[in-house]
Design a protein that fits this description.
- Chain A: The chain crosses the membrane at residues 17-36.
- Chain A: One of its GO terms (molecular function) is proton-transporting ATPase activity, rotational mechanism.
- Chain A: Residues 169-190 are annotated as: Disordered.
- Chain A: Residues 58-99 form a coiled coil.
- The complex is a heterodimer of chains A (190) and B (269).
- With 190 residues, chain A is mainly alpha-helical.
- Chain A has one domain.
- In chain A, 86% of the residues lie in helices and 0% in strands.
- Chain B is mostly helical.
- Chain B has one domain.
- Chain B is built from seven helices and two strands; from the N terminus they run αββαααααα.
- Chain B has helices spanning 4-10, 44-64, 73-94, 102-117, 133-164, 171-218, 222-265, and strands at residues 35-37, 40-42.
- A two-stranded antiparallel sheet of chain B has the order 1-2.
- Chain B is globular, with a radius of gyration of 23 Å.
- In chain B, 40% of the residues are buried.
- Classes of the chains: A mainly alpha (190), B mainly alpha (269).
- The A-B interface holds A 1-2, 5-6, 10-25, 27-28, 30-32, 34-36, 38-40, 42-43, 45-47, 49-50, 53 and B 5, 8-9, 26-27, 29-30, 32, 40, 45-46, 49-50, 52-53, 56-57, 60-61, 63-70, 78-79, 82, 102-104, 106-108, 110-111, 130-134, 136-138, 140-141, 194, 198, 202.
Chain lengths: 190, 269
């Protein structure tokens, strides 16, 4: 075999031969053609789809997260509002209660004063009436006593009456003026 | 298997047997036809290239023809590879307009990578890209792509300007720079693309061969066994290294392609 080849003047390894170039071109051409027409578009489509799917998923997740955040915020807001409302109501109730108590107290005070005033009036009236009665009785008694003492009936009724009245008025005047002029007729005032 | 040109007729040669080291040579890269279709002879690298095509297509067809939004394990692996080229190479280098060139770059990267990987696959053990015609074919594709793009984007004069007159330099420099840019961008680029990939894989294969043949050759005597063990360790280390280089070269080829496309699309300043 070696002899055979050697006799033929061996092909130089650095000189390309045309049939082999042609085979190389054809083989590469076939590979390129299949890649160009079918495989690269096919895989690129899928890679693009995958990218889109991943990005779509991420977008969806982001949207869900944003919604959740929004919901949480609205809940928080509502909660804060409710708290605020409750505090406001409590305050209002407190104020109302205080006002009610004050009003009641005022009313009580007023009623008490009224009752006291009514009492005073009643007492004054009673006293006045008692004084009136007392005056008549004292008059009669005095007349009776005086009649018995002098032994005669005092006929002149009108005069008697006038004398008694004057006397009593004097007494009364002494009683009223008795407080400022203490020394003078303090016994009569009592 | 990979070194059948050598091993097929030198298997009995060992150290101290009065026969020389059957070093790998350009014959290591020449193959008898496996079979013929009509009058066309199909050899092992050709078969590997066709197989690479079927593997790349089969793998990505299974993963991407009916893709799911929630990917299975298989689709996930394919997606990782695809996104590596799309983001790591295309967008990184070309920027906003990258999407249109993703099919080209993905095809290039995985086709080259699989062709390279054959170097360490048992029973194949030959990188298809160490046959210069295959890198050349791919470089030709890249060259026509970026040339077409240049003239399509900028028109004829603008295209020439884009290729030969880098902007923003003092005027005197252009006398020297324009011819250099012209040669560099139009002729050297495809050449270096080809040679870089080819030479890396060629050299890698030679290295592996040296140590594999060395392991076999030094066996047979007590002393030789130690040599053989050392050589075997080297083979394993170099296999790992080659795995790295295979991916790296596929990456470099693809990145450079992206760079050329990006330059072709660049707005004139």
């Amino acid at each position: 075999m070696l002899i055979e080849l050697a006799a033929e003047e061996p092909q130089s390894p650095v000189v390309p031969v045309v049939p082999e170039i042609v085979i190389g071109l054809i083989c590469f051409g076939v590979i390129f053609f299949v890649f160009y027409k079918k495989l690269v578009p096919s895989i690129n489509k899928v890679l693009e789809e995958r990218r889109a799917a991943i990005e779509g998923g991420m977008e969806k997740a982001e949207a869900v997260q944003a919604e959740a955040r929004q919901t949480l915020e609205s809940y928080k807001e509502q909660l804060a509002e409710a708290r605020h409302e409750a505090a406001r109501m409590r305050q209002e109730a407190q104020e109302q209660g205080a006002a009610l108590i004050a009003e009641m107290r005022e009313e009580g005070q007023r009623q008490r004063e009224e009752i006291i005033a009514a009492g005073h009036t009643q007492i004054a009236a009673d006293r006045k009436q008692a004084a009136e009665l007392l005056r008549q009785d004292v008059g009669n008694l005095a007349i009776e006593l005086a009649g018995k003492l002098v032994g005669e009936s005092l006929e002149d009724h009108a005069r008697q009456s006038r004398t008694i009245d004057r006397f009593l008025d004097d007494l009364e005047r002494q009683a009223e003026g008795g407080v400022p002029a203490q020394g003078q007729g303090s016994e009569a005032g009592r | 298997m990979s070194n059948d040109q050598v091993l097929a007729f030198e298997t009995d040669c060992h150290l101290f047997n009065d026969c020389g080291f059957p070093s790998p040579s350009e014959f290591s890269f020449l193959f008898e036809p496996l079979f013929t279709i009509g009058s066309f002879e199909v050899n092992k690298p050709m078969a590997l290239v066709v197989l690479s095509t079927l593997i790349v297509l089969g793998f990505f067809w299974k993963a991407f023809s009916k893709p799911a939004v929630v990917p299975g394990k298989f689709q996930m692996i394919a997606e990782a590879g695809y996104e590596f080229v799309r983001r790591g190479i295309a967008r990184e280098t070309i920027g906003k307009k990258a999407e249109a060139y993703v099919p080209l770059l993905v095809s290039l990267f995985f086709f080259i990578w699989i062709m390279n990987i054959w170097a360490v696959i048992p029973f194949a053990q030959f990188p298809a890209t160490s046959i210069i015609a295959y890198p050349a074919a791919l470089a030709l594709v890249v060259w026509s792509t970026y040339m077409t793009l240049t003239f399509k984007t900028h028109g004829f004069v603008g295209g020439i300007r884009n290729l030969c007159v880098p902007s923003g330099l003092p005027k005197g420099i252009y006398v020297i720079l324009t011819p250099i840019e012209f040669i560099s961008n139009i002729f050297v680029r495809p050449l270096t693309l080809t040679v870089r990939l080819f030479a890396n894989m060629f050299a890698g294969h030679l290295l592996l061969l040296v140590f594999i043949i060395g392991t076999w050759y030094t066996l047979g005597s007590v002393v030789g066994t130690f040599y053989a063990a050392t050589s075997l360790v080297m083979t394993l280390l170099l296999t790992l290294f080659e795995l790295f280089i295979q991916a790296l070269q596929a990456y470099v080829f693809t990145v450079l392609t992206a760079t050329y496309i990006s330059q072709a699309l660049e707005e004139p300043h």
